[in-house]
């Protein structure tokens, strides 16, 4: 019988506690140096304590490769608590909190630290960016892939509009509040500090949504003209970004917060970066 998220959560806390009792320690995240607010690094948020997850979470994937690994991970991470689209606003204020200013969030593509209170749809606000563009598979904002925190991030309203539903690729021109991100007529390149984050979010979605629970079968491919098809590119570039930009403290903490406080599932490619090459 699969272990429920709540049972896994309590087992995680029990293991972490027993580790302390026997004189071991659970690694803790440390805050970045001052002035690093525009980078993709973070410490534990001020409002949510994180704890080491139970390594047995991935027991069903142990020793598997290729399609068998992908199928096993789908089974594991599909066991999740879903939240509404309106609840995403407050969740992002926790998952993406600026480690140097608890009143702000860090915007994904821009790297800007912006007040949590400026969430909305006006110029100067931040809104909810679907990293896997919601039109790629036409799942919209309905509870499910449209509200999955593992690929939803805060972003400047205008920058979000510029990214639109473009696939990811190298190249393009800068734009206002780009933070180093680039765009052209059919693709978007995020700033260097979050290239790996973007890749791992896309690949999470491809494993989580396999067409077995009423949603489209999402898959990465090597195209930048996917339109409304349930595909996202470019896989070859995403794999390069994954290698060039390994999981940061901010990204790992975010994974923990989503697991502990919201969805109770994890992005396996943050925990096990080697699984990207094993599957793709």
UniProtKB/TrEMBL annotation:
Record field: compositional bias (Low complexity): 170-181
An MF annotation (GO) of this entry: hydrolase activity
Leader sequence residues: 1-36
InterPro entries referenced in this protein's UniProt entry, alphabetically: Endonuclease-I (IPR007346), His-Me_finger_sf (IPR044925)
Pfam families: Endonuclease_1 (PF04231)
Highest taxon listed in the record's lineage: Bacteria
Organism for this UniProt entry: Streptomyces fungicidicus
Keywords, ordered alphabetically: Hydrolase, Nuclease, Signal
Region Disordered: start-end pairs: 163-190
Protein name: Ribonuclease
Transmembrane segments: none
């Amino acid at each position: 019988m699969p272990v429920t998220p709540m049972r896994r959560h309590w087992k995680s806390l029990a293991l972490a506690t027993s580790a302390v009792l026997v004189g071991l320690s659970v690694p803790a995240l440390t805050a970045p140096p001052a002035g690093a607010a525009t980078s993709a690094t973070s410490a534990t948020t001020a409002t949510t304590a994180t704890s080491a997850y139970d390594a047995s979470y991935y027991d069903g994937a142990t020793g598997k490769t290729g399609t068998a690994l992908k199928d096993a991970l789908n089974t594991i991470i599909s066991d999740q608590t879903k939240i509404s689209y309106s609840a995403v606003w407050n969740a992002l204020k926790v998952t993406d909190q600026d480690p140097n200013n608890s009143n702000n969030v860090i915007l994904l593509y821009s790297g800007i630290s912006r007040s949590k209170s400026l969430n909305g749809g006006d110029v100067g606000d931040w809104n909810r960016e679907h990293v896997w563009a919601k039109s790629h598979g036409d799942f919209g904002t309905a509870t499910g892939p449209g509200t999955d925190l593992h690929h939803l991030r805060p972003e400047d309203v205008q920058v979000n509009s510029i990214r639109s539903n473009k696939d990811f690729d190298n190249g393009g021109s800068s734009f206002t509040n780009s933070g180093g991100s680039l765009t052209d007529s059919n693709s978007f390149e995020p700033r260097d500090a979050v290239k790996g984050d973007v890749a791992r979010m896309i690949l999470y979605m491809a494993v989580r949504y396999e067409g077995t629970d009423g949603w489209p079968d999402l898959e990465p491919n090597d195209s930048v003209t996917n339109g409304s098809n349930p595909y996202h590119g470019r896989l070859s570039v995403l794999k390069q970004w994954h290698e060039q930009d390994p999981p940061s403290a901010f990204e790992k903490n975010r994974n923990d917060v989503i697991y502990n406080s919201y969805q109770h599932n994890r992005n396996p490619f943050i925990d096990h970066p080697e699984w990207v090459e094993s599957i793709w």
